[in-house]
Amino acid sequence: MALKCNAPRVNIGQLGISIGLLPPPAKYRSLRENIVHSRIATRRIAASAVAGAAALAVLAPTASAMDATAYLNSTQAVAQAEAKQPAQLTVKNYTAYLKHQKTPEARKALNAFTKLPADKQARFVKYLQNRNIYKAFSGQAKGKIDRPLKVVDSYNKDVKFVTEVTSKTDQAVQGKSVEWISFTVTERIFNVPVTSETLNLRYQFDKGKVTDVLRAGSEVKNVNAAIAIHKGKVARRGHHAAVATASTVWTIYPLVKSFGKDLDKVQEVASGSGTWKAKLATR
Question: Which end of the chain, C or N, has fewer beta carbons within 10 A?
């Protein structure tokens, strides 16, 4: 879908801005110029559009969708948006955040969170906004196709990082075998799934060599109200190679001041000749 105005046509999806938050056509040109000339502003706009307008209004009631719309018109929006962020996540506003979400993950988290005793709820929200924990959130494994794998790494007694890999060889297509692999790392707090990042790869091979990378994709599930996660493009390689590969970058933006600065995660998987290796790490 493209905007109809005097400015050059731009794909809305490329801007990462929901239709409901677009400024009037008359303001579009200044928006485009700010995006072109400010990488920082672009990243902040993406975060606000994807998660900020919904989550920020719940976490900081004085903010509104109108604020988010206004922010799109100036590079000063960066500082103003940060000023709107609440200082920290609390049990009260996290509960409100979960109730506001409409996903199965949020409903499951809300049910589990409200059943925790008060002291654990307080620790739970502290863990959510601890940048060091999310920076440590990672997973690494290797194995063979058709053999599922699950590895649990402990950050501490309450926080776990769970790595899961499933893979399979499908029936041959035009005489060539097809293999697929799904690599997921999940952060769990008191055994409640908080953030899950998945990378998938499907490829065709013949006589020990990859002949075509058929598909590669990613998925994120997040009920951590302290951050917004931007899903980057998935790069795939492997045509006529020994292995097929897929990789992507997750960019994490803070929604509360207590979390600190942005950070990036790199997730990648490589597979071929019946084996695979996978990794998620902070860049």
Answer: N
pLDDT of residue 190: 98
Tokens at residue 242, please? 């020994």
pLDDT for residue 272: 87
Residue 267: HSE in the Cβ half-sphere, 13 Å Cα cutoff: 28
Residue from 120, 95, 108 nearest 189 by CA: 120
Give CA–CA dist 178/205, Å, rounded: 6
CB contact at 8 A, 155 and 134: no
Assessment of whether the complete model's pTM goes beyond 0.70: yes
**Does pLDDT of 75 surpass 50?**
no
What's the gap between Cα 144 and its chain centre?
Answer: 27
Cβ distance 4 to 10 under 8 Å?
no
> How many other CB atoms are there within 10 angstroms of residue 40's CB atom?
10
Which residue has better confidence, 198 or 210?
198
**SS3 annotation, 69-90:** HHHCCCCCHHHHHHHHCCCCCC
Handedness of CA 182, 267, 173, 147 (dihedral sign): negative
Specify the pLDDT at position 177.
86
More confident call, 54 vs 199: 199
